[in-house]
Amino acid sequence: MPRVFGAWKREVVRDNVMLPRLFLSFLSPVFGSEPFYPASVCAAILGMKKGSRLYKSLVRERQVAAEAQAFTYDLTKGSDLLVIDVTGRPGVSGEQLEQEVSREVDVLCANGVSADEVARAVTLIQTEYTRALQSAGERADRLSMFATYFGDPALINSQVRRYRSVTADAVNAFIADRLGENNRASLLYVPRTSALRTHRTGEFAGVRA
Fold first, then answer.
1. How does pLDDT run across 164-193, given as a tens digit for each residue?
2. How many domains, the chain?
3. What is the pLDDT of residues 108-123, one digit of tens each?
4. pTM across the whole model
């Protein structure tokens, strides 16, 4: 599996949707590996809860999105994916939505993240993880996952520690390595009646009805 896509891969799908919705994905380190944790923290900084960069910028400030989140898929084979999922507001075109999201990623690539942002994200991840484990069903699912993926259910106890060890330098190294235009794949859903124009980085790779 390649470490990056090699070029920005883009596809537009016309569908029976009311609002445009963008999935912007990046190949990232597999779940459970040491580099996975900075990638996961980066996803949290971008789009975990309403204090995230994407939510504050796109939903609250510029009001081009109705919803915005980012997450890792937590895959253990070949490569994981970091995914940004943003739904536009009424009146916002798919083209504008993709440009606005891309702008946020470009800003992140240019400026990186701070130690305070990393600390806040790690605290949020820790809180969510601890809350999830209070559910017997969720705890059983995670024990089963670690047993199946790694043959060691006790790894459930090391996750918070591994997140706490993540530094801003590690997150910024991940950003520089994996969030550039050579490692982006866009899947954009637009209403069937939408007009599509040329994107600033080139033509759409494909349009499907």
1. 999 999 999 999 999 999 999 999 999 987
2. 1
3. 999 999 999 999 999 9
4. 0.91
Distance CA 169, CA 38 (A): 9
Rg from Cα positions in the chain: 18
In a domain, 42, yes or no: yes
**Greatest pairwise CA separation for the chain in angstroms:** 52
* Full residue range of the structural domain in which residue 63 is found: 9-193
Dihedral sign of CA atoms 197, 19, 43, 58 in order: positive
95 close to 196: Cβ distance less than 8 angstroms: yes
Span between the terminal Cα atoms of the chain, in Å? 30
> Cβ contacts of residue 9 below 8 Å, gap of 6+?
184, 185, 186, 205
The strand pair at 207-208 and 9-15 is best described as parallel
Centre a 10 Å sphere on the Cβ of residue 148 and count the other Cβ atoms it contains. Answer: 10
Beta-carbon contacts of 191 under 8 Å, excluding residues fewer than 6 positions away, are 14, 15, 16, 17, 18, 19, 20
Q: Determine, yes or no, domain membership for 85.
A: yes
**Whole-angstrom distance, CA of residue 156 vs CA of residue 138:** 12
H/E stretch holding 201: none
Q: CA 46, CA 40: separation in Å to the nearest integer?
A: 10
